[in-house]
Amino acid sequence: MTVPAPVTPYQTHAESLAASSPDWLAKLRRGALNRFAEQGFPSLREEEWKYTNVAPIERKRFPWAEAPGQVDPAWVRDRLLPDCWHLVLIDGHFARDLSSLPERAGETVICDFNEALDRHSEWLTQGFGRAVDVDHGFIDFNTALFQGGAFMHLSAGARLEKPIQILHLQTQAAAAASRHLLLLEEGAEATVIETYAGLEAGLTAHISEVLLEKEARLQHFKIQEEAERSFHFGGLYVKQASHS
Description:
The protein is of the alpha/beta class. Helix content is about 25%, strand content about 30%.
């Protein structure tokens, strides 16, 4: 079978991710890959993208970052914000040794997305995809290919004492995708700072989903310091209850 051009560089990796995912996520991954194979990245013919030409991304045909690249820990530490907890991703892969996360307290959980798949699947199945209310190629690309990300669940009334910095580091001229899911129950409060930095000009395709219950409050910041000529798609999708 001939694989459609947009999928060719990523087919093997996407199939491997689906095979290692739980059934509910594998189904979503394979459906997203099939749609991306048919439609590719958004084109100028689409109303929402008529002023944004993303054809150079497809022509570049980035390889996939199969494994995290080498990075100087001192260089990483220079990009960690003070007085924060930190979740570090290198080329989309969780870097446990460079991360510092709060211990679980009650029903407050902050961890790597893949750990959440193993330990908190009930929250993931209830929340994943609920906030994304649009459909285009970058979203399918992310769903099919995201390697990891951050998961946060705050129970009702919980308040984080320090911000969470999610630090994305691009060390290769390659493609990397990550996915965050942030769930705040009624009255919960948190601050999240997403930071993107890079040594090489690659492709970042990222989605953050946020679900806020009644009177929950989230402060969200995004800092980009990536290499010149990098390509970056980032989507922040929020589903809010009243007074959140």
